[in-house]
Amino acid sequence: MFQRSLVTFLFVSAVALCNAQNSATVHQPKLTPEISGTTQLLISVSPVNSQIVWAAGTGGTYVVTTDGGNTWKSGVVPGAENLQFRDVQGVSDKVAYLMSIGNNTTDFRIYKTYNGGATWHLQFVNHTASAFYDCFAFWEPNRGVAHSDTVNGVFPDIRTFSGQHWQSISGSMPPALPGEASFSSSGTCITTQGESNAWITTGGATVSRILATTDAGNTWNSYDTPLFSSPSAGGLSVAFRDAMHGMVGGGDLAVNYRIQAATSDDGGHTWTFTKKPPLGGTIFCLAYAKGMTLDAGASSDAAFERTVVITSEDAPNFDRGAAAWTPDEGQTWYRLPNASGYWAVAFANPQAGWFVGNNGQILKISF
To answer: What is the secondary structure of 42-101 as a DSSP string?
Structure first.
């Protein structure tokens, strides 16, 4: 949806000190800058485990590390030099998917590599006028779903169960509200969990909604959230730590004071505001620190079950937003010092997470 007002790019208020918490009394996570090998904006990031991480962004660029971030390899997908990769899904050191956007109908594509980026196979090319694919997510290496803004009141979403061919599931999606769309800020407007659960966050209409499936996209339901919604506002990022408990975050891209987050404990049916995050701008991405995997030697994920990290960006340039974290799903918040200008964050486990953002910046975060 960002493209409606900012073409292909995403379109300070006072800091709230939630519960009068003083970050100086809290053990802050360790932040370690890393060298990506590119100066392109990195928009999305996908850890496979604590050693293998993929990220991608503008200029048809992707980066990958196989040694936990000590070194990164950057590359450009042939034929995609003028496109932006708004989402990435890492599977292994050899296998990954990329999802692109651009100015033209056929610029919305999905690529896959089987050899660590040496070659890329074009799996999907959009031919639906006015479709805008914002994000995708996977249950397993060959099972995933990609989400688009609405076209004539319909979400032209697609799904793969083979890891090779993508088919429309538009007939299974809920009817769209007038103006409803999603935001491609970090590839996290959709999230998956388990073998068949998925949630999509929307905005753009009079209400921000969650679209949810429990059967891998065969059927979907819609649920209202309390997030402020308008043509420039709504939910931008959603994550679930299990089938019942999740968080959604967003704000208003036209102003820098409507940052919001909410949590659900019933699978996304109902939502309750968290304390206001101590940042301006809009939440571009949120991620649970426990990650999707737990490597040998990592701290028990139970200790970080409710720890969430958020990154925000400020209008009008979206290049200097701050970051924060919460140990209890938004009841208390702490700003992260020296973390600025990052669009996305994701974790392999609590000791291995990565921010990516402007000018090819990568920042490792370890609790």
So the answer is: EEEEEESSSS-EEEEESTTEEEEESSTTSS-EEEE-TT-TT-EEEEEEE-SSS-EEEEEE
Are 351 and 366 in contact by the 8 Å Cβ rule? The answer is: yes
In the numeric block, which tokens belong to residue 289? 């620190």
Q: Rounded to two decimals, what is the model's pTM?
A: 0.92
Cα–Cα dist 343/356, whole Å: 6
Strand order in the sheet with 246-252: 233-240, 246-252, 260-264, 272-273
Q: Output the CA–CA distances (angstroms, integers) from residue 294 to 32, 46, 286, in the order listed.
A: 20, 15, 19
Q: Three-state DSSP class for 171?
A: helix
pLDDT tens figures, 221-249? 999 999 999 999 999 999 999 999 999 99
Q: Which of 336, 334, 326 is nearest to 306 (CA)?
A: 326
Opening angle at CA 239, ends 170 and 8, nearest 5 = 60
CA 165 to centroid of chain Cα atoms: 23
Distance, CA of 64 to CA of 58 (rounded, Å): 15
User: Which amino acid makes up residue 186?
Assistant: S
Q: Quickly count: other Cβ atoms within 10 Å of residue 256's Cβ.
A: 20
List the beta bridge partners of residue 290.
none
Structure tokens at 267: 């699978």
What is the pLDDT at residue 25? Answer: 73
Torsions phi, psi for 106 (to 5 deg): -85, 5
CB 155 within 8 A of CB 113: no
Closest CA to 18 of 338, 336, 339, 330: 330
pLDDT over 50 (residue 6):
no
| Least confident among 1-5, 193-197, 247-251, 312-316 | 1-5
CA dist 311 and 31 (Å) reads 14
Distance of alpha carbon 235 from the chain centroid: 11
Average pLDDT over residues 304-321: 95
